[in-house]
Design brief:
Helix 4 packs across helix 5 and helix 8 crosses helix 9. The two termini are 24 Å apart. The chain has a seven-stranded antiparallel beta sheet with strand order 3-2-4-1-10-9-11. It is built from 16 helices and 23 strands. Bound molecules: iron/sulfur cluster (SF4).
Amino acid sequence: MFKEGCGVIGIWGNSDASRLAYFGLYALQHRGQEGCGIVTTSSNKLHIVKGKGLVSDVFCDDKIFDRLPGSVAIGHNRYSTTGEKGYRNVQPILIRFRGGEIACVHNGNLVNSASLRKYLTDTGSVLRGDSDTELIMHLIARSGKPTVPEMLEDALSKLQGAYSIIFITPDYLIAARDPHGFRPLELGKLGHGYIIASETCAFDIVEAEYIREIKPGEILVIDKDGKINSHFPLEKRREAFCIFELIYFSRPDSKIFDVNVDKVRRDLGRRLAVESPVDADIVISVPDSSNSAALGYAQETGIPFEIGFIRNHYIGRTFIKPGQLERDIDAKIKYNPVKGVIKKKRVVIVDDSIVRGTTISKLVRMIKSAGAKEVHLRISSPPIRFPCFYGVDTPTKEELIASSKSPDEICKLTGADSLKYLSLEGMLSLSTLPEHSWCTACFDGKYPVL
Ligand code: SF4
């Protein structure tokens, strides 16, 4: 499985801004579980609470919200793609500089962070953490421009790579998306105010209405009076929306990049069925991320969809000593096959992707030991052969099983009776996909920026 890299939220114009940000972070928990935090503004000051762990761990007491007054807030769920996992890198990052106080939350990954870090330290900056976000804050603090929005613009013009970012100051809430548009960032109406978030599932929980996406290269400034100013000062780049957001990362009940995630996943499953049908008795998913694709595969082939795995959602941290317990215990803690459904059946397992190949091999073994006659793997994306440099925690190329092995070799290793991937052309030809240019670098190695 891939791991995601961060969820961001911004609330403008609600007296309960910190609580709304908190609910939004709950909805975005799947995007990062390592740490989280909220910053609000009131009385010309910023207030911060952040810590390591899940939203329910950090915001475990209602009194915490007394420390977060104000009608404007930003929040963040962290999964580290750069930087160590310590508290120092938990966001929001808040600084005080000559322009006053500013805090920011960031989803993405800069590809020029090494040269920015060198430039900053060579010219006297002292860096505390090792995240990209801190670099951005230093660039803002060093800008010679007269106003905070102009300082931000100046700093952002020096960045290369992926960023969907929200800033808060006592005077402004500012959202920006990199000119490639790698990561999603959505704008909604929340009562008389606004909400900005990585995915619209954060809108639903607080009953906000979707307005539109923040566009690639857009900087959207909401001032104290609620006046919105949108502009596009950054150099135009080729659009490269992360197609993996639709395949796996985002929640199926979200709308991102102008499309419903569930709709695209079902179509991926349907297209996979057209490309690689199989004679079988049941179709099952690997919950939760491949549910929609498996349903699409079942609908297209007419093979019944069944609940073949039950997923345990209450795992938290597990301590497994290698060799001490039975084989595959880590997968067994997470998934259990429904034996009555599987026994004596020819089973199609639809999954969204194969990364290292270890989990899927364990799942095939589990389904076979539950009595399946045959197991056919159908993957609703092409083979992942290259690492991501844009904010997704992928292993190295060597660890990606498809970088060195053919589908037939992978099939043999997993112990499945057949294995087919969706083709790249098939994936990109879906009529449901909005007309954007997509980043497909983890499949074809064509990196939009390095
Ligand atoms: S390399 Fe893959 S995961 Fe990374 S941004 Fe591109 S499509 Fe998304």
